[in-house]
């Protein structure tokens, strides 16, 4: 009897890979972030990436990081987590998990809490210790939302499209 293949990827690798692949849709020249929302029974409910809202021409969007607020991307870009929540087409997000490249900001933490997602798996926490990051963790802790750093196994996957 033939045995099953042994070198397949686990659920965390699979869903983080989907989030990272989604990030490749971002037009942001500096930061690409993806998100993948998953049910308790490991079904993908939604994906998202950081980018312009639907109907907003991303060619007209300022992608600058520095300068007056209205002349930077920060006034206009939807974060990956919010996009994934808003892209969901009617699935109940209660008790779901979200896989994301970057630990959520305080605004996305509010949306995650409000949507019913109960666990966050993140790849990077590069803004750790900033006011927004502290506020995010404070809200998540208070609302009993679990978060954990993705355990990077240095798996290299290649797609030839």
Main beta sheet = 5 strands, mixed
β-sheet strand percentage: 15-25%
The Rg value, from CA coordinates, equals 17 Å
Gap from first CA to last CA: 34 Å
Separate helix tally: 4
Low-confidence stretches: none
Helix/sheet category: alpha/beta
Number of strands: 5
- Mean pLDDT across the residues is 94
Indicate the overall shape. globular
Order of SSEs, N→C? HEEHEHEHE
Q: What share of residues is helical?
A: 25-40%
Main sheet strand line-up: 2-1-3-4-5
What does this structure look like?
By secondary structure, the chain is an alpha/beta fold. It has helices at 11-23, 80-87, 106-115, 131-142; strands spanning 34-38, 44-49, 97-102, 119-124, 146-149. Strands 2-1-3-4-5 form a 5-stranded mixed β-sheet. Strand 3, helix 3 (106-115) and strand 4 (119-124) form a beta-alpha-beta unit.
Quickly describe the structure.
This protein has about 160 residues and is of the alpha/beta class. Helix content is about 25%, strand content about 15%.
Secondary-structure map:
Elements: H1 11-23, E1 34-38, E2 44-49, H2 80-87, E3 97-102, H3 106-115, E4 119-124, H4 131-142, E5 146-149
Parallel strand pairs: 3-4, 4-5
Antiparallel strand pairs: 1-2, 1-3
Helix pairs in contact: 3-4
